[in-house]
Amino acid sequence: MNRTPSNELHFAFPPDLPEPSALRDLLQAFPALRPPSAAVSGSFAFHAEPPSTVARYFGEEGHAGGQAAAQHLGVFGVEPDGSTIAVWRAPQGGMPVVYLSSEGGGRVLASDMQQFLRLLGVGYDEFALYGNLDEPPEEDGDVARELLAWLAAQGLSVPETGEDILAEAEQRWPDFDGWMEDAIAGRLSEPVLAGAPLEPAPVAAVPEGNLWDQMLACIGRPIDDPLVLQWLAAVGAKPLKPATPHNDSTYVSVRATGIEVSAEMAPKHRAFWPPRKDGRIWRTYVTRIILPVKAAPLVPLPEGLSWERFPGPADGDDFVEQPVSATLELAFQRAAKGQGLARIDARLPTERDFMEASADYEQTKPLVYVEDAFFVTWCALQGLLDPVRYPASVLAPWRERTATPLQLLHGPCGRIVWTDDLAPGASGFWDDYYRGFGTPDAERWVTDVKTVFRSSNHFREPDEAMTPDSWEAFDRIAPQIARRFGAWRRKAQQG
């Protein structure tokens, strides 16, 4: 990273993007903090970077979307791995401070420059795409005396952790990651459209008053659902923030009671698939609530449950699961001593996905999942998919070969194959052969693809010739799948 060598550091903001007054005032009062070699806070250093190089965070050199995005970012800091800190001129107003990762992606850190300088005062060694900053630095933060003196002179306190500063910013500007995605895709100049309507998930009805029943009803609901917001407030928790592709789950916790609430943008559950966006914000759903015994006075248990009694055999496992509905299950953990309960988990049941075809990936490589489609098509034709989900009427076009294998993966499969999509007993073949669990390399699906087609489309460059989505190509590998299945079945029968 080329850093400005002079003590007279001049930031290179876009011409119409003003430097925040707090930043200017700090460096005018304490010019010793200006040099990139100056110790400011942790590994953070002040740094100047012009828009022409800021564009690299959004694509290759000359990328139009990156150049447009760079006009709304003023870089003023850097970390050793090349990640930068910038002010962002947000479309909805305001100048929050954001983090641009050298590995791609970003996040909002603080609502304005004053709040960011308070965050530096905490003394974290570095920032990252992940985490809530809800713990103090592992060691006493290395913070410049000049920065602390300036904060004190402005009447700005230094918090113990950065949690509140970060949470406020992420609640006010939840769309920064989506804005970056639009910049990378060259869509910044296009109108921001609302997401497609989502079929309501079969979650519990909203109960009245009872915090236990309301807690159960929160599972599977969007994080901005009124019931979720009401319940979080009632137990003293902050609102949840939306997840992003770089941070696909979020959580909040309440230290006084130990309650933890988790949310995901892509829960492994059919009712919430595929992931969807509302404008630039990913829809995020409550997937788990942990209720420890410490929270007993706040959330009374219903009749039939007691913290004094573990709902399982005295000499059995320390964990008991109890299905409640298609979108809710409870898990009980035994206390370390006695037959009491330590905690209760309310959570969204999850499925395993054996195969997933990303529409975004197919934008650059339309045939990338062809070989995967061959495998799922062979399984469908051999009765290894669930006959209820895939009856003969659904599979008729593939038996007649009037539709292609990739159309099966895109269509009836919905780009994903879940645990319950497989016929009873078939998951073992998928695990052992397709996924290669515990199978010698020479007997795995990936090896057979390489043997038959010389390479998988996954590993071919976009301009290389691809294995086509054709029945002729399917017929080249189908006999090999049949041999592998026969061998697998004989082995399974032998125990």
User: For the residues shown, what is the average pLDDT?
Assistant: 91
Instruction: List the domain count as a whole number.
Output: 3
**Arrangement of strands in the largest sheet:** 6-7-10-13-12-11
Shape: globular
- Find the count of extended strands (DSSP E, 2+ residues): 15
Helix vs. strand class: alpha+beta
- Rg calc: 27 Å
- Percent of sequence in beta strands: 15-25%
Total helices: the number is: 16
- Main beta sheet, described? 6 strands, antiparallel
Helix proportion: 25-40%
* Low-confidence runs of at least 5 consecutive residues: 1-7
The termini sit apart by 59 Å
Descriptive notes:
The chain is of the alpha+beta class and 495 residues long. The protein folds into 3 domains: 21-185, no CATH class; 211-347; 354-493, no CATH class. Helices cover 30% and strands 15% of the residues. It has 16 helices and 15 strands. The protein has helices at 21-29, 51-54, 64-70, 113-122, 145-153, 163-172, 176-184, 211-218, 226-234, 359-364, 370-381, 392-399, 405-410, 427-434, 445-453, 471-494; strands spanning 45-49, 73-78, 84-88, 97-100, 106-110, 249-253, 260-264, 277-278, 281-282, 285-292, 319-325, 328-334, 341-347, 353-356, 416-418. Strands 6-7-10-13-12-11 form a 6-stranded antiparallel β-sheet, with helices on one face. The protein has a 5-stranded antiparallel β-sheet with strand order 1-2-3-4-5. Strands 8-9 form a two-stranded antiparallel ribbon. Helix 3 packs antiparallel against helix 7 (176-184), helix 11 (370-381) crosses helix 16 (471-494) and helix 15 runs antiparallel to helix 16. The chain is globular, with a radius of gyration of 27 Å. It starts with 20 loop residues before the first helix and ends with a helix. Residues 1-7 have low confidence and may be disordered.
